[in-house]
Amino acid sequence: MRKILRTLSEKTGQYDRLLQLYFRWSLFLRRLETRILIPTLSSSAIIRKIYFSFFSDVFSSEMKMYILGRQHYLERSLFEQSNPSHLRRNIHRLEKGLMAENRRELFGADYLLETVHQFAYSVAELDRCTLNDWAFDVLQQYFQWSPNVPLVEQAKQIFTEVAYTKLLPEVFRGPYVKGPTDKELYSRFSILAKSRKSVRSFVPGSVPANDVLENAVRLAALAPSSCNRQPFRFVVLTQSGMVTDVARLAGGARSFAEGIPALAVVLGSTAVSPSPGDRHLMYIDGSLAAMSFMLALESQGCSSCPINWPDHKKADAALRKCLSIQAYERPVMLIAMGLARDNSMVACSVRKEVKELLEII
Ligand SMILES: Cc1cc2nc3c(=O)[nH]c(=O)nc-3n(C[C@H](O)[C@H](O)[C@H](O)COP(=O)(O)O)c2cc1C
Hints:
By secondary structure, the protein is of the alpha+beta class. The protein folds into three domains: 2-55; 63-162, no CATH class; 187-338, NADH Oxidase, CATH 3.40.109.10.
């Protein structure tokens, strides 16, 4: 809009006047929206449906992501292919059943057969890996504890026929007793949490070493995720041209895009659950992992800055041209990384007070 105004003003010589008119017009439209459109939309589900079907496409990418994720999940679950998210969820549920204080004699019966089938597909497709080791140990323990009813017998038969050999036979991957928490942990975590700040000025070329990134991702993976499905991955860009191009796509990094040594694109996946209610898991789980990732970077002396990735069609299409992203994946955020420049400034960014953030009932 400003470009159009500038061109017009070059012809008329009245840039300020045109800008003022433009601001007034925008204000008028916003006020109209606030007083008329929004109250109308908030009053009726039918009007909302009509409006968002025919007059607004703000949710179109969300709808597309949801449907593509569901398609990918169901294709893999229903047509004899391995679906690691499906296996993870079911093994997680069995593990919870196994360690429940009032363990039921028979549990998980409604998803037991699909779980052993998924285990068989997973072994056929992925062979020896930590996911299959985990599934193997949990299923084995499940069969030890469960009664010999026909359904369990049938599942056990399928499980035995898989004849899986663990990748790491010496490591048991079932439920275990958690040790006590280190008493010094709060003060040490407090140092780390206070040390991390969003850094926007980096030493040129200070790309984090591979082991720093691997360590950070190892800890990021320890973040909790819904049913342990971990619907995220980190794509790290280290080539300066590409880093700048991608960082520029996110409006919030334009002012410092050129000085970013490396950039992580945190990608979330909608294909880890077929349920519409789970469509935001990629953002929740992806953000929890991103936080651990940034803290792990900080603990290794590498600074970072999270960068917003808004839902913009053009930026999304441009990013998909640069990177190989599955149709059901979408950036959760970008993270700029590198060594902080000596004496570089960071914002104070005063936090809300505890009483504003905490309500104990
Ligand atoms: C999801 C998310 C998106 C953010 N996007 C941007 C951004 O686009 N540009 C930017 O400079 N900072 C961005 N930030 C950094 C915040 O401005 C910063 O975390 C906040 O002001 C608190 O400051 P601190 O991180 O230095 O403690 C983002 C942070 C988060 C968590």
